[in-house]
């Protein structure tokens, strides 16, 4: 994708909620994800690091240089590809944009906690942090994966920070619940 | 890929070892994977099920209808894609061949135990079994993932069988060790 400029978490969350709703309208599980970064020109001309920016983002502040550099929705049925989750697609999209297999200076925001596959992809891509809305639907997600294998065991060579954004949980979970409710009644 | 017919485990392991060596020659970590199946014409005209065929395969017997329907090597650097592991690529390739997001009637054979990301992709694709040569290099792999979250916990909605083919372990591990030895000395 081309990079898109955004002001704050409200704009970014609206954007991914809209993407998730569009996926749901196409009969895919309504999940959407975006890889965000801070423009290097901004990041390199301040004494703040990416974590400072992420904490401002989490507090709802306006950020200079905030961009979405990769996005994705669930497209498993459309692409006939079990790996076409929103997170994995967003990561691949961002890597293409950055022309790099590493996303060290970026973070992922996603309407649903990443599954094991996507959690693995987050670790491999060295994303700084993951911000998720709804916790894993059932079974284990990225939070359990990291807590089962804490940093000091060296189970992984990178430990991204996880942030569960509970203020968006209801909206994200309800979107998923109504999707599955509708599927059961059809 | 177009489907390729193979006779037995010796031919398939030669094939993936050759692919892994080619990846190594291109400076990628030498890992290769293939998704195998039994031709439905053969499978539907016998009283054996896929597990029976896999057990014959593991015993080194010749199998009728054995095919590779997806293959992949590590291409992280070439594709600038952290998700371009051999297993994930082979799964996507096989799904394209089958025109389906499910690989229920297939099994994966791979020179290295799948990582967490690829283990997740195996589960999502519903592959019947995973046959691997070398155990995970460091950190946790698919075996640990499944043993940390055993079947009765319903952590996952599918539990593929794992087979560690120890008779191929030395060759696969040595290929990896010499690759990294060379990298360190360059």
Structure commentary:
- The structure is a homodimer of 186-residue chains.
- With 186 residues, the first copy, chain A, is an alpha/beta fold.
- The first copy, chain A, is 44% helix and 18% strand.
- Chain A has helices at residues 9-25, 40-43, 50-58, 76-79, 86-98, 116-125, 142-148, 169-185; strands at 4-5, 32-38, 66-73, 106-112, 129-134, 161-164.
- Chain A has a six-stranded mixed β-sheet.
- Chain A is globular and about 55 Å long.
- The N and C termini of chain A lie far apart (35 Å).
- Chain A binds chain B through residues 76-77, 79-83, 88, 91-92, 95-96, 99-103, 115-121, 123-126, 138-140, 144-145, 148-149, 154-157, and chain B through 76-77, 79-83, 88, 91-92, 95-96, 99-103, 115-121, 123-126, 138-140, 144-145, 148-149, 154-157.
What's the short version?
2 copies of one chain form a homodimer. Chain A has helices at 9-25, 40-43, 50-58, 76-79, 86-98, 116-125, 142-148, 169-185; strands spanning 4-5, 32-38, 66-73, 106-112, 129-134, 161-164.
Give the largest interface. Answer: A-B, 39 and 39 residues
Order of helices and strands of chain A: EHEHHEHHEHEHEH
What percentage of residues of chain A falls in helices of 4 or more residues?
40-55%
Beta-strand share of residues of chain A: 15-25%
Oligomeric status = homodimer
- In total, how many beta strands of chain A? 6
Radius of gyration of chain A: 16 Å
Detail the poorly predicted runs of chain A.
Answer: none
Largest beta sheet: strand ordering of chain A: 1-3-2-4-5-6
Shape of chain A: globular
**Main sheet summary of chain A:** 6 strands, mixed
Distance between the termini of chain A: 35 Å
Specify the structural class of chain A: alpha/beta
The number of distinct helices of chain A, counting runs of at least 4 residues, comes to 8
Provide mean pLDDT of chain A, rounded: 94
């Amino acid at each position: 994708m081309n990079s898109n400029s955004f002001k704050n978490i409200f704009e970014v969350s609206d954007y991914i909620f809209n993407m998730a709703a569009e996926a749901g309208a196409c009969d895919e599980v309504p999940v959407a994800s975006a890889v965000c970064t801070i423009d290097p020109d901004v990041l390199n001309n301040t004494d703040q690091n990416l974590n400072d920016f992420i904490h401002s983002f989490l507090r709802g502040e306006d950020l200079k240089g905030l961009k979405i550099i990769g996005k994705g929705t669930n497209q498993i049925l459309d692409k006939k590809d079990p790996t076409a989750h929103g997170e994995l697609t967003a990561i691949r999209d961002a890597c293409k944009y950055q022309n790099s297999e590493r996303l060290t200076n970026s973070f992922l925001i996603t309407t649903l906690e990443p599954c094991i596959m996507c959690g693995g992809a987050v670790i491999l891509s060295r994303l700084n942090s993951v911000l998720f809305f709804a916790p894993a639907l059932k079974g284990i997600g990225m939070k359990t994966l990291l807590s089962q294998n804490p940093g000091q065991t060296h189970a992984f060579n990178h430990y991204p920070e996880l942030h569960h954004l509970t203020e968006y949980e209801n909206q994200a979970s309800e979107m998923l619940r109504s999707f599955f409710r509708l599927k059961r009644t059809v």
